[in-house]
């Protein structure tokens, strides 16, 4: 089997045994990037020299008899809103062009400590705001499965890098579906863990109460392994759970005793091709012995409105610091206020400005109670309705995205783009884990993912269902050039 | 009628107190005054993208101490973000407690006015960085550019907000002075106004005598000493009175105190509606202090200025005179109460110890550091030694004062050596006897009256003796000699 | 509750609060787009949630604190190097209050 087809579990095993050198692994992926990333545009920055150097180090440590970590020699692509000391981090924004952070995110430290090799920084919708990666200030990323389609977003570069075989695993962030939706559109596995399971320290915040870092992988087990590496308490993140951990349990796929609820409200705006694949996945779950029934969670209908008040509100505050004083772009005006205005006007793209405007409005005097305050109450409603559903079901399922990958410019109206997140948003509002697993091909053979939702800190049962789905599916998305 | 007599002044104070923690409120950078620019900084207090705050537990403990010392209710609290753009704020929002502060509903008693000032709240927040305005004026107006140092950004503050209960500059000064004494005794703050550890904003309004509705208030910033506070309030109140008398109205605004010119001026020229867009800081968790721990913290506070004053008052019997009350206040204000208490413990009469503490010692403290709050360093043992000698009649009061003054200017002077040097040798019994013989013969009428029971004449004789001996006679010894003669 | 219609003057005010020097064309675009998004949000505005507490955090955690111990600061040069303009190891900014 070609190196680039190997998963993280296999690579780590081969590197530890000496069957493969880390350098061979890195080189194979770098040459794939060289050959195809010109078409895809998954990376904003390829860290070739650093990755090679790091691979050699790992090989040296192996030959020195040192213990290697769980991700020994595994290349990892990093969404460019997560900081790595001395490596340009831009959030795909002009305002951060050239910024080299003086510190490293906790997740990246954890990955590196387990032998993973950062191979590049991936493209995204500017500041993670978008569902197609078209909002990158640099260039759009293309869907490797069909290059005239978007990869989804905002972690489109990370999803595309895994789907393109540029890296066996990637790290993304998910605020309203930014891992799961691109995973679904690119045909890979994507996980949004429980809020607080993975440290946010070093993740450039979009919406602090919703953001969560998670993995992309080609297989459920790889995603599970990566999650086990990055999960756990971090004293640098006050919202990181002090007790929660996630342990990789590779063989658990028996779902015969599970009760699975199908969220009725998440089926209404779904296209027929996606619905077709989704129904097949339900049949597969039934034939694995699970009890599958429909459940109604009316409050999720309010998720979109709630999300599009809370996320921009928090973002408007989180993005205030990009002011041209300490780092980033400055356009000097007559005085400080003018400098703020000009720098931010020049540095932010249209979607970012739109959300800053919306969020500023939602928080401004006179509207707080009716908008932001109300939206926070809707979260409570969603949490309590989920809790009721989980008294009857172990996990819930839905399509991840209402459609397969769409074309560039198809959703130029902001609201229609926001609708792409309708199935993924409720998990962020509730802080619950959810993941997308590719199951079949929809229109034009494009990938369709199934979303599995679970109660807080119930990643283990979520992965069990994901393994069952993966086992029942024969579908495998391939890059366009591999056909 | 003077214009001041036609209006009532109303003042509310907001006092920002820096907490003396080792580290900043949300990161592990050193909380240190006077470091090289931008050396106590990290991703968190510099607001670098991706960084997150974590609350310093000692800062919370100190806030609870302060709240307890001000008789506040300690409550569950939430940090909010106060959003506005300013270069000294690294995140362009300040993390501060808004509608759910940690301490509410406290009070502070002014020592010399019969008044209890309500404390509306004491909340936690982070300090901002420091901006230096560069240009010919050296001030924000007319500066060419500014330089920002973020060492101070993120230092923990407690902001103590009083109700508008104060009605004069003197009350305001006494409020701050008393508050400072309380803060220092909680050990949560060093109270150094000159280093900016305590910063005061004053909300001042005036209203015509006989009316109830409070006038429009102006907030005066940059009050860095008690002197500035008093001057600024007087200036601002008068400005408002004159404006109202001239038929003008007062605009609610923030004003800056200019110490050199002695005036307040509007801080922002442009009309700007403030809209801080407060919302709960999502990067922090709520605080819900354990009430047993709060009680433990409160118990550990030790004795606070009001109780310290009470302790001194209780040394004296009966109703205290106004001057004795002032002596009590002075001793506590200058941290001299322990000197006095120790002296009394060794048997010195309380009135003498209090008088020497508040008059002599306090004046040395005052002379050494005018308008500053430096605590008395006067060697306690030597203070006790001198006034013990005085109370035993071994030195006269004049001699005692001289001795204290010499020790104040050089703490290393030994009492016995000074007595030797100054010739303060106690008179012998024979000398006293001779002196009394002379006094009786020169004032035989008075002596007879004294012997007949006019006891107040004892002072007359002691006064004469002092004159004759240039103050070297010990009044006490003489008094007992007189008593012996009268009986004999 | 007055999230009804948003005027271009209101958009201008919001842009000022957010320190975005928007062009006139952007003001116009955003006025329309914000109105449309807020119109969509009407579905929650009409909900009666008076008795519902807001959810601020997904996890019900409180009192997360750290001990008061000094940690190493970052290298000043590494930070200043990223600044648009510095002088004397400080961040240089244009004059804060402009002429009227
Ligand atoms: Zn710091």
TrEMBL record, chain A:
Q: Per the database record, which ranges form the Amidase domain? A: 24-460
Summary of the function given for this chain in its UniProt record: Allows the formation of correctly charged Gln-tRNA(Gln) through the transamidation of misacylated Glu-tRNA(Gln) in organisms which lack glutaminyl-tRNA synthetase. The reaction takes place in the presence of glutamine and ATP through an activated gamma-phospho-Glu-tRNA(Gln).
Residues folding into a coiled coil are none
What's the protein name? Glutamyl-tRNA(Gln) amidotransferase subunit A
Q: Which GO terms describe its molecular function?
A: ATP binding; glutaminyl-tRNA synthase (glutamine-hydrolyzing) activity; transferase activity
Q: Which UniProt keywords apply?
A: ATP-binding, Ligase, Nucleotide-binding, Protein biosynthesis, Transferase
Per the record, a Pfam family?
Amidase
What EC identifiers does the entry list? Answer: 6.3.5.7
Q: Where is the active site?
A: 79 (charge relay system), 154 (charge relay system), 178 (acyl-ester intermediate)
Origin superkingdom: Bacteria
In the UniProt record, the gene name given for this protein reads gatA2
UniProt KW Transferase keyword? yes
Q: Which reaction does it catalyse?
A: L-glutamyl-tRNA(Gln) + L-glutamine + ATP + H2O = L-glutaminyl-tRNA(Gln) + L-glutamate + ADP + phosphate + H(+)
Under InterPro entries, the record lists: Amidase (IPR000120), Amidase_CS (IPR020556), Amidase_dom (IPR023631), AS_sf (IPR036928), GatA (IPR004412)
Q: Which protein family is named in the record?
A: Belongs to the amidase family. GatA subfamily.
Subunit comment for this entry? Heterotrimer of A, B and C subunits.
Sorted alphabetically, the Gene Ontology BP terms of this entry are: translation
TrEMBL record, chain B:
State whether it acts alone or in a complex, and with which partners, per the record.
Heterotrimer of A, B and C subunits.
What organism is listed for this UniProt entry? Acidithrix ferrooxidans
One Pfam family here = GatB_Yqey
Q: Which residue positions does the secretion signal occupy?
A: none
Q: What does this protein do?
A: Allows the formation of correctly charged Asn-tRNA(Asn) or Gln-tRNA(Gln) through the transamidation of misacylated Asp-tRNA(Asn) or Glu-tRNA(Gln) in organisms which lack either or both of asparaginyl-tRNA or glutaminyl-tRNA synthetases. The reaction takes place in the presence of glutamine and ATP through an activated phospho-Asp-tRNA(Asn) or phospho-Glu-tRNA(Gln).
Task: List the taxonomic lineage.
Answer: Bacteria, Bacillati, Actinomycetota, Acidimicrobiia, Acidimicrobiales
Sorted keywords for this record are:
ATP-binding, Ligase, Nucleotide-binding, Protein biosynthesis, Transferase
Show the Gene3D superfamilies listed in the entry.
Answer: 1.10.10.410
Q: What is this protein called?
A: Aspartyl/glutamyl-tRNA(Asn/Gln) amidotransferase subunit B
Per UniProt, the enzyme's principal EC class comes to ligase
Automatic annotation (TrEMBL), chain C:
Which BP terms does GO give this entry?
glutaminyl-tRNAGln biosynthesis via transamidation; regulation of translational fidelity; translation
Q: Which Gene3D superfamilies match?
A: Glu-tRNAGln amidotransferase C subunit, N-terminal domain
What domain of life does the UniProt record list for this protein's source?
Answer: Bacteria
Name any one Pfam family assigned in the record: GatC
Molecular-function annotations in GO: asparaginyl-tRNA synthase (glutamine-hydrolyzing) activity; ATP binding; glutaminyl-tRNA synthase (glutamine-hydrolyzing) activity; transferase activity
Instruction: Determine if ATP-binding is one of this entry's keywords.
Output: yes
User: Which keywords describe this protein according to UniProt?
Assistant: ATP-binding, Ligase, Nucleotide-binding, Protein biosynthesis, Transferase
InterPro entries xref list: Asp/Glu-ADT_sf_sub_c (IPR036113), GatC (IPR003837)
Entry keyword Lipid metabolism? no
Enzyme Commission number(s) from the entry: 6.3.5.-
Q: Which reactions does this protein catalyse?
A: L-aspartyl-tRNA(Asn) + L-glutamine + ATP + H2O = L-asparaginyl-tRNA(Asn) + L-glutamate + ADP + phosphate + 2 H(+); L-glutamyl-tRNA(Gln) + L-glutamine + ATP + H2O = L-glutaminyl-tRNA(Gln) + L-glutamate + ADP + phosphate + H(+)
Family recorded in the similarity comment: Belongs to the GatC family.
Q: What quaternary arrangement does the UniProt entry report? A: Heterotrimer of A, B and C subunits.
**Task of the protein:** Allows the formation of correctly charged Asn-tRNA(Asn) or Gln-tRNA(Gln) through the transamidation of misacylated Asp-tRNA(Asn) or Glu-tRNA(Gln) in organisms which lack either or both of asparaginyl-tRNA or glutaminyl-tRNA synthetases. The reaction takes place in the presence of glutamine and ATP through an activated phospho-Asp-tRNA(Asn) or phospho-Glu-tRNA(Gln).
PANTHER family documented for this protein: GLUTAMYL-TRNA(GLN) AMIDOTRANSFERASE SUBUNIT C, MITOCHONDRIAL
Indicate what this protein is called per its UniProt record: Aspartyl/glutamyl-tRNA(Asn/Gln) amidotransferase subunit C
């Amino acid at each position: 089997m070609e190196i680039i087809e190997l998963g993280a579990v296999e690579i780590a095993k081969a590197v530890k045994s000496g069957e493969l050198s880390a350098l061979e692994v890195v080189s194979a992926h770098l040459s794939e990037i060289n050959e195809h990333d010109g078409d895809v545009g998954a990376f904003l920055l390829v860290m070739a020299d650093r990755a090679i150097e790091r691979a050699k180090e790992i090989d040296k440590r192996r030959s020195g008899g040192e213990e290697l970590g769980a991700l020994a020699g595994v290349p990892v692509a990093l969404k460019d809103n997560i900081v790595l000391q001395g490596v340009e981090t831009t959030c795909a924004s002009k305002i951060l062009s050239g910024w080299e952070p003086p510190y490293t995110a906790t997740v990246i430290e954890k990955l590196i400590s387990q032998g993973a090799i950062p191979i590049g920084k991936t493209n995204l919708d500017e500041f993670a705001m978008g569902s197609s990666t078209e909002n990158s200030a640099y260039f759009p990323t293309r869907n490797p499965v069909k290059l005239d389609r978007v990869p989804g977003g905002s972690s489109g570069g990370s999803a595309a890098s895994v789907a393109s075989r540029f890296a066996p695993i990637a790290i993304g962030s998910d605020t309203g579906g930014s891992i799961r939706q691109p995973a679904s559109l690119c045909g890979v596995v994507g996980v949004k863990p429980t809020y607080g399971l993975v440290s946010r320290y070093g993740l450039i915040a979009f919406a602090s109460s919703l953001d969560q870092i998670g993995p992309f992988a080609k297989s459920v087990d790889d995603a599970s392994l990566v999650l086990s590496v990055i999960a756990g308490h971090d004293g640098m993140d006050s919202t990181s759970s002090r007790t929660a951990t996630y342990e990789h349990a590779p063989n658990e796929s028996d779902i015969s005793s599970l009760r699975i609820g199908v969220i009725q409200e998440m089926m209404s705006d779904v296209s027929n091709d996606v619905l077709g694949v989704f129904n097949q996945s339900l049949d597969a779950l039934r034939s694995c012995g699970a009890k599958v029934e429909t459940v109604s969670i009316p409050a999720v209908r309010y998720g979109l409105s709630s999300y599009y008040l809370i996320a921009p509100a928090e973002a408007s505050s989180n993005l205030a610091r990009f002011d041209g004083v300490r780092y980033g772009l400055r356009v000097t005006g007559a005085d400080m206020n003018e400098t703020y205005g000009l720098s931010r006007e020049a540095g932010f793209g249209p979607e970012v400005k739109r959300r800053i405007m919306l969020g500023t409005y939602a928080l401004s005097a006179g509207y707080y109670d009716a908008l932001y305050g109300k939206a926070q109450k809707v979260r409570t409603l969603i949490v309590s309705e989920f809790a009721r559903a989980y008294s009857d079901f172990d996990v819930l399922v839905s399509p991840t995205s209402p459609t397969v990958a769409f074309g560039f410019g198809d959703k130029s109206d902001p609201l229609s783009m926001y609708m792409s997140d309708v199935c993924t948003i409720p998990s962020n509002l509730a802080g619950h884990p959810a993941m997308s697993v590719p199951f079949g091909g929809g229109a034009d053979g494009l990938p369709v993912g199934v979303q599995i939702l679970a109660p807080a800190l119930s990643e283990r049962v979520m992965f069990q269902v994901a393994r069952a789905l993966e086992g029942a599916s024969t579908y495998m998305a391939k890059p366009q050039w591999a056909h | 009628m003077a214009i001041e007599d036609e209006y009532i002044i109303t003042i509310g104070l907001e006092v920002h107190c820096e907490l003396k923690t080792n580290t900043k409120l949300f990161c592990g950078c050193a909380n240190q005054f006077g470091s090289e620019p931008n050396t106590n900084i990290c991703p968190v207090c510099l607001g670098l993208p991706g960084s997150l705050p974590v609350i310093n537990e000692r800062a919370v403990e100190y806030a609870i101490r302060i709240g307890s010392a001000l008789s506040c209710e300690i409550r569950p609290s939430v940090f909010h973000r106060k959003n506005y753009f300013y270069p000294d704020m690294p995140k362009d929002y300040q993390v501060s407690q808004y509608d759910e502060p940690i301490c509410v509903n406290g009070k502070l008693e002014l020592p010399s006015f019969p008044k209890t000032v309500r404390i509306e709240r004491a909340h936690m927040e982070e300090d901002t960085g420091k901006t230096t305005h560069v240009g010919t004026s050296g001030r924000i107006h007319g500066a060419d550019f500014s330089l920002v140092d973020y060492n101070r950004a993120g230092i923990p503050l407690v902001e103590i907000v009083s109700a508008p209960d104060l009605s004069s500059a003197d009350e305001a000064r006494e409020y701050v002075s008393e508050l400072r004494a309380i803060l220092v005794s909680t050990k949560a703050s060093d109270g150094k106004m000159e280093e900016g550890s305590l910063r005061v904003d004053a909300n001042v309004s005036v209203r015509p005598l006989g009316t109830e509705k409070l006038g429009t208030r102006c907030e005066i910033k940059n009050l860095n000493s008690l002197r500035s506070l008093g001057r600024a309030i007087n200036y601002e109140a008068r400005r408002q009175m004159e404006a109202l008398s001239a038929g003008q109205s007062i605009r609610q605004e923030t004003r800056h105190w200019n110490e050199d010119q002695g005036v307040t001026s509007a801080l922002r020229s442009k009309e700007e509606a403030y809209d801080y867009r407060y919302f709960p800081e999502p990067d922090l968790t709520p605080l819900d202090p354990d009430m047993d721990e709060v009680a433990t913290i409160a118990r550990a506070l030790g004795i606070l200025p009001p109780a310290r004053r009470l302790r001194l008052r209780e040394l004296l019997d009966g109703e205290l005179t106004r001057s004795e009350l002032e002596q009590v206040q002075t001793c506590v204000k200058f941290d001299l109460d322990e000197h006095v208490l120790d002296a009394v413990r060794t048997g010195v009469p309380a009135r003498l110890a209090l008088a020497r503490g508040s008059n002599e010692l306090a004046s040395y403290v005052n002379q050494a550091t005018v308008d500053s709050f430096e605590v008395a360093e006067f060697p306690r043992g030597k203070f006790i030694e001198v006034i013990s000698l005085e109370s035993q009649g071994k030195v006269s009061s004049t001699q005692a004062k001289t001795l204290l003054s010499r020790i104040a200017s050089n703490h290393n002077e030994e009492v016995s050596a000074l007595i030797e040097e100054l010739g303060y040798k106690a008179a012998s019994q024979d000398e006293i006897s001779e002196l009394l013989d002379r006094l009786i013969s020169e004032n035989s009428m008075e002596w007879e009256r004294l012997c007949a029971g006019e006891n107040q004449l004892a002072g007359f004789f002691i006064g004469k003796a002092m004159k004759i001996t240039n103050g070297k006679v010990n009044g006490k010894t003489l008094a007992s000699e007189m008593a012996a003669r009268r009986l004999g | 509750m007055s999230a009804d219609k948003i005027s271009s003057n209101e958009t201008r005010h919001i842009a000022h609060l957010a320190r975005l020097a928007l062009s006139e064309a952007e003001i116009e675009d955003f006025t329309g787009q914000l109105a449309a998004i807020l119109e969509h949000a009407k579905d929650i505005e009409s909900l009666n949630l008076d008795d519902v507490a807001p959810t601020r955090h997904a996890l019900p955690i409180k009192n997360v604190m750290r001990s008061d111990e000094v940690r190493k600061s970052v290298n000043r040069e590494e930070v200043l190097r990223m600044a648009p303009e510095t002088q004397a190891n400080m961040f240089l900014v244009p004059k804060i209050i402009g002429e009227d």
